[in-house]
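Recap for those who missed Tuesday's class. We walked through two folding examples back to back. For each one, the amino acid string is listed first and its predicted C-alpha cells come directly after. Nothing is annotated here on purpose, so try labeling regions yourself before you check the end of the notes.
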Amino acid sequence: MRRFQLSSPEIRQAPYPMADASRSSSTVLLSILSTVAFTFITYLTIGLSLAVLPSFVHTRLGFGAMLAGLAISTQYVATLLSRPQVGRMADAKGPKRTVMTGLNMCIVSGTLLLLGALASGLPWLSLGLVFLARLALGCAESCVGTGAIAWGMGQVGHTHTARVISWNGVATYGALAAGAPLGVLIAHRCGFAAIGAVSLLLPLAALPLARLKRATVVATGERSPFRTVAARVVPYGIGLALGSIGFGCIATFITLFYAAHGWDDAALALTLFGVVFVGVRFIFGRTIPWLGGYRVAMASLAIEAIGLIAICLANDARMAGVGAAIAGLGFSLVFPALGVEAVHRVPEHSRGSALGVYSVFMDVAMAVTGPLGGWIASGMGYNAIYGFAAVAAMGAVLLALVLQAQAAREQAPAAAGNPACPETGDD
C-alpha cells in the first residue's frame, strides 16, 4: 500500500484526500477550476505583452526583427531551464508551494517590465530590463503551469488526468486569447508602461488566494531516478516540441507577418487561435479517454499542419486568420493527448517530474522559434516560417504513429498473460 507524508505546515493543517471516482462531476470540475485559475492569471499576464512587445522592441527601441523575436523567446528559455527543477519541487515540496513561487516570480517580472518601459529613452537599458522581465516570467510560467496541473491531479485523482490537463490548457490559451487584444488596447490608450503595471497587479491580487487554498498531500516512496523518468517521457516531448513550433511561430511573428504585408488586426489572429483552441477543449476534451491519446494527437497535428499551410499561402488577412483558427483547432488537444500517454509511463509519485520533463519540450520549441524564425524570415520572408512549421507538425504525426506501435507491442504480452486486466502503462 502506498504511503504518504505531510511535508509542509499547509499540508498538515488541511490535506485533501486523494480524489476518487465517487466524487460528483460538478465537485471535480469546481476543484479543477479553482486551481487552474492561477494558470489563467499567469497566462493573462503573458498574453498582455505578447502582441505589443515585439513592436515595442522593434519600433520604439529601434532593434531588428531577430532581437524582437528573441525578446519573446527569452521567456521560453527560462521556462525550459527551470522545468526539471520545478517538477522535482512539485513532487517533493508540493504543488501549492510551487504555484506560489510562480506567482511571486510573476510579480518580479511585472516590476521589471514596468521599469523597462519607463527607461525606453535608453534603448539598451530598456532592452536589458525587458529581457530580465521575460526570464522571470519564464520561471513563473514553469512553476504555475506544472504546479497547477499537479495540484489539480492531487485534488481530483489521476483518473481525471486528461481533464485536468485539458482545463489547464483552456485557462492557458483562453488567457492568451483575452490578453492579446487587451494588451493592445491598454498599450494604445495608456502606453506600454501600463502593460508592466497591470502585469504587476494581476499576480499580486492572485497570491493571497493561492495562500488560502488548501494543499494536497505529497506522495512518498522511492522516487524514480530522474534519468529513468526522462527516458520514458522524452519521445512524447519531442512530438510535443514538433507540434508546438507552429504555435510559437504564430505567437512570436504574427504581428510582424501582418505588418510586412500591410494588414491590420494581427491581434485578431491570436484571438481566433485562442478562441478556437478553447472551444475545441470544451467540446472534444473528453475524446482522449475515448479514442486514446495517440489517435487524438495524430489527428490534431495533421489539422494543425493544414492551418499552418494556409497561413504560409495566405494572400490576405482573412485567409491568414482562417489559417490561425485551423491551427488552433489542431493544436488544442496535442498537449493533453500526448501528455496523458507520457505520465502513464511513470509511477504516481514521479508524475510532477514527468510533467516537468514533458513540458520542457514545448519550451524548447518556443525558445528556438524566435531566433530561428527570425533567421528564416530575414532570408525567405515571413510566409516561409509557417511552411517550415507545417513540416514539423507532420513529423510529429509520424512520431506519434511510431509511439503508438511501440506501446501496442509493450502491452501485448501483458494482455496475453492476463486478458481480464490489460496493461495500462502505469507502474
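Example two. Treat it independently of the first, because the proteins are unrelated.
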Amino acid sequence: MESLGRHILVEFTGCDPDVMDDVQVIEEQMVEAAEHSGATIINSTFHHFSPLGVSGVIVIQESHLAIHTWPEYKYAAVDLFTCGDTVEPWVAFEHLKKAFKARNYSALEMRRGTIRLLDSALKLKDARLDTEEKVTPRFKRNIWFTDRDNYQALSLRYTGNVLFDERSAYNRIRVIETYAYGKALTSGNRLICTEKDEYHYHEMIAHPVMMACQNIERVLILGGGDGGSAREVLKHGGVKHVDLVEIDEKVVEASKNYLPFLSKAYDDERLNLIIGDALEFVENNGDVAYDLIIIDGPHSSGKPSKLYTPAFFDRCRQLLSSEGAIVVQGESPKFNEKAFKQIDQNLKQVFGVEHKFNMLFNVPTFPSGIWSFQVVMQSGKDPRDVDQAAVKLFVSQKRTRYYNYATHMAAFAMPEYVKKMLN
C-alpha cells in the first residue's frame, strides 16, 4: 500500500434528469455502489432540495461516498474516497455511471496520504487497528422526503424502507416509513397523508358539514382514493350510499395493501368505488342527486386543477339536492394563496356569497401546517348552527381524535389576514 487512501472526483453529464431529482433512487444506488466496491457502510444521509437537486453522503468505515446533483443540467458531482486496500472505488464509479445513465463523464484519481512522506507512529497505529477490528458498524439510513414549491418546503425523514413503489399513468405512488409520522402515502413529490396526522384532514372534511346537515344519505367523493374521507363519511349511520371516484387505481392499491387504517372503508357495502376521471363522471352522471359532494383532490404548488373551475362547480351544483352541500379541498392560504383565493372566487361565482363558507384547521405534515376546506351550503344554512349535544354524543361514540364541538366552531373563525385576502 503506497498511500492511505484513494480519492476519485467524478463529473457525470448527460444523466437522466428524473434520476437526478429522485432522492430515493440516488440513495439506493449510492448504497449499492458502496456495497459492490467492498465498503462497510456506517450510515447514509440524503436530502432533496427545493425546487431541484439531491445531496447526500454514504459514510463508510473506509471513508465516504458523496454526491450533489443538478437535474436541470443533467449533472452530478460525485466524490469517492476510500482508505486501505479492501475497497475498489472504480467499481462504485462504474455502478453509478450505469445507474445515472450518464452519457459522458470526467474522472480524476488522487492518492491521499503518500506513506513514504508521512511520519509513522507505529504504536498509535497498531492501537487504532486493534480497535477497528473490534468495532461492528451499524448502517443507519437518513433520507428526507420533501414536499415543496419554489419558495418553501416541508421535509420528513424516513427510514429508507419503501413499502410500495409503483408508477401509474398519472404519477409515482409510494408508501414510505417515516420516523416521526409513521407510514406516509406520497404521489410524485407531494405528500398525500401520514399515519400520525391523517385524521386531522379526514375528520374535518366530513364531520362539520355532516353534523350541520344531519340528513345526508347519498354522498359523492371525487378523489380520496386512500379511503380516509370515505371512512369518516361512513361513520354517519344515515348514509345509505357513497360513490367514490378515483382516477389513479395505484392510490387505492397502495392504501388497501399497506394503509389499513385508511382503507377499511372499502369493506363497507355502502361504498361504490369507481376507477375513473372525476370530470367525466360528473359530466355524464345524469340526474342522480347527492346530498353531499366532497372534492378531495390533491394539493398543488400552483394554480388549481380543472376540478376547481366555475364550469365544474356548476355541474356539481346540478347534481346537488336542494338541501345539499359541497366540501372542497381548498388549499392553504399560506402555501397556495393564489389557488386558495381562486377556489373561493369560483365557488362564490357559481353559488353566491351567501352560500359560501371557509374552514381552517391544522395538519402538521402539510406545507405551512394550516389548510382549508371551502364549503357550500345549498340551503343557505350556516354550518356553525349545530346541536352541541349531538356533536358531543357523536364524538364520544365514534371516538374522533381531532373533531369536536370546539374545533367545529373554531374552524369557521377566519383570521383578519384571510378576511382581507378574500375581501
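Answers for example two:
Confidence is low (pLDDT under 50) at residues 127-137.
The CA atoms of residues 232 and 355 lie 24 Å apart.
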